[in-house]
Amino acid sequence: MSARRLEGKPLVERRKAALRDDVATLAKLGRAPRLAVVLATEDEAALAYARAKQRAGKALGIDVEVVRFEHPTTEALVGKIDALGRDGSVDGILIETPISPGIDLRAVQDAIPGAKDVEGAGTFALGSLFRGAAAFVPATAAAVMALLDGYDVEISGRHAVVVGRSLVVGRPLSQLLLARDATVTVCHSRTRDLAAVTQTADILCVAVGSPRFLIGSMVKPGAVVIDVGTTVVDRKLVGDVDFDAVASVAEAVSPVPGGVGPLTTIMLLENVARAARLQRQERAER
């Protein structure tokens, strides 16, 4: 069996056209959407991620500002986020990760107003997701769903296994799959006989940050495998899935790089445009 490659780029190009039109309309009504990316670390990877968002936003007409802290504290970050939350020219706020040691990330994320939490990272946003009423879904989890939908993968009634229980991917993704009527199992570092569980999955999503963790013998023949992991090995980006081994068993596999990753940024920027539109509607109704 030679698995289909679930590439994200073709789907991104389709979404870009619609988003570009949406942003242009918002700009004509007043100004372009604006995202503030708070960078509270010296980590080079975080800086690279923030700059990538700037470039992607600029290409679509979205203003992305990087707000840097050289010596951050939780109190200073919360104060800055409070100011950004009250700034009517800012539509979305996110905290770039990884973040400096000693910072209370949960407190910082929870300081973002729900109407501007475009990453869906705060407690309110995550709680709303579990109730099925989230305004903004975490971008990576949303990207997985967009990839499945973009390739017409049937979700309803199928067994979906999510390996990884982070608040960024695993838990929100499990809720999105459940909302689409999948039967969902979440696995993690304490799961006993992990392979016995993954071998039952019709849809298998892996987000653990361990290079080539998932091998062919862990996959049910004909399954759809989504690789969410990213790790740099020998200066190359690799995923959680041993692609060649799994591709010989699965019906479809997303590659790394090129699968979920390209969709993640576009999902975030769609959230920024949505936030801008909702906030303008709210102000108009006052």
User: Percent of residues in helical segments?
Assistant: 40-55%
Approximately what portion of the residues adopt beta-strand conformation?
Answer: 15-25%
Any idea of the CATH topology of the largest domain?
Answer: Rossmann fold
Highest CATH level, the class of the largest domain: Alpha Beta
General shape? globular
Strand arrangement, major sheet: 1-11-8-7-5-6
Terminal Cα span: 59 Å
What integer value in Å does the Rg equal?
19 Å
**Helix-strand category:** alpha/beta
Please, what is the average pLDDT?
Answer: 94
Instruction: Quickly give the CATH architecture of the largest domain.
Output: 3-Layer(aba) Sandwich
Main beta sheet: strand number and arrangement? 6 strands, parallel
Counting DSSP H or I runs of 4 or more residues, the number of helices is 10
Low-confidence stretches: none
One letter per element, helices H and strands E, the order comes to EHEHEHEHHHEHEHEEEEHEH
Supply the number of structural domains.
2
Q: Please, what is the CATH homologous superfamily of the largest domain?
A: NAD(P)-binding Rossmann-like Domain
Number of strands: 11
